[in-house]
UniProtKB/TrEMBL annotation:
This is Membrane-anchored protein. Keywords: Membrane, Transmembrane, Transmembrane helix. The chain crosses the membrane at residues 55-73, 80-101, 107-126, 146-162, 168-187, 194-215, 235-254. It comes from the Bacteria. The lineage of its organism: Bacteria, Bacillati, Actinomycetota, Actinomycetes, Mycobacteriales. Pfam families: DUF347. The keyword Protein transport does not apply. InterPro entries: DUF347.
């Protein structure tokens, strides 16, 4: 008597069933919206934490992040509105997570930066070990998308701590910190464009740097003059950044110019993870 064939695990099937790609094409507009969202996350987090009980603000930020992520996962494909809503909510909650480490727990910025860097490295190791790639050109299953968003959250938290480290611990201030990160982000861009560096490494390096760059610019615009800022206030900065994000995401949703097309090793030989 032959044994009955093993039934496939239903959860595993749902997590690994391939479908449409779930992240946008990486072009100039991607980096612009990403930078705006990181800046808005910084200002929105500061506004909420100072405008209400910090514990309530963190809980609300977490719930908003979970709701946005649920919408994106349920879509099962890239949608400009749900994707960028998720990024903005990660920006808000990631900032809060990094700030809690320093303000509530008293962890120094160098230690919190190292801690979140370790978490990010762990996510990348697990992602690569399970999926065999870190390429955004292959994020077409729920499991890969969960790894992707885990990496995004870690980059936001690490970038927030890194920006605070340069501004406060190194006493560079917001404007100088922004200038430093603006120069640093050119390194992976130049390496990819002219030196043939690994595209996945360049992408994630630039992705991490956009966080402290955007946060430093937001703090420089919103914080008081006696704190090396322009004194515009967090609320006006949030409104201005929010309007800019809505305008750009509306453009992307209408034109669908950033919807990725599936690629293969033959069509995109630059990406070693696809070979």
């Amino acid at each position: 008597m032959n044994p009955a064939p093993a039934r496939p695990n239903a959860l595993s099937s749902i997590l690994t069933r391939a479908g449409a790609l779930r992240v946008p094409e990486i072009a100039a507009v991607f980096w612009i919206v990403k930078g705006l969202s990181t800046a808005m996350g910084e200002s929105a987090s500061d506004f909420l934490v100072t405008g209400m009980d910090p514990v309530i603000a963190v809980v609300l930020g977490f719930l908003a992040f979970v709701a946005a992520l649920a919408l994106q996962l349920r879509a099962g494909r890239y949608n400009a509105w749900t994707y960028w809503l998720g990024v903005v909510m990660v920006g808000v909650f990631g900032t809060m997570a990094a700030d809690v480490m320093h303000v509530a727990l008293g962890v120094p910025y160098p230690a919190s930066t190292a801690f979140y860097a370790l978490i990010l490295a762990t996510v990348f190791v697990l992602w690569h070990r399970v999926e065999g790639t870190l390429s955004i050109h292959t994020v077409n299953t729920t499991r890969r998308e969960l790894f992707y968003w885990a990496a995004v959250v870690a980059t936001f938290a690490m970038g927030t701590a890194l920006g605070d480290f340069t501004a406060y611990t190194l006493h560079l201030g917001y404007a100088t910190s922004a200038a430093v990160f603006a120069v640093l982000i050119l390194i992976p861009a130049a390496g990819y464009r002219w030196l043939g560096w690994n595209p996945i490494l360049c992408f994630w390096t630039a992705y991490v740097i956009t966080r402290p760059l955007g946060a430093s610019i937001a703090d420089w615009a919103g914080k008081p003059r006696d704190s090396s800022g322009l004194g515009l206030g967090d609320a006006p900065v949030v409104v201005a950044l929010g309007l800019a994000i809505v305008a750009l995401v509306t453009y992307l949703a209408v034109t669908r110019s950033d919807v990725q097309q599936p690629v293969s090793p033959e069509t995109d030989p630059r990406d070693p993870a696809l070979r």
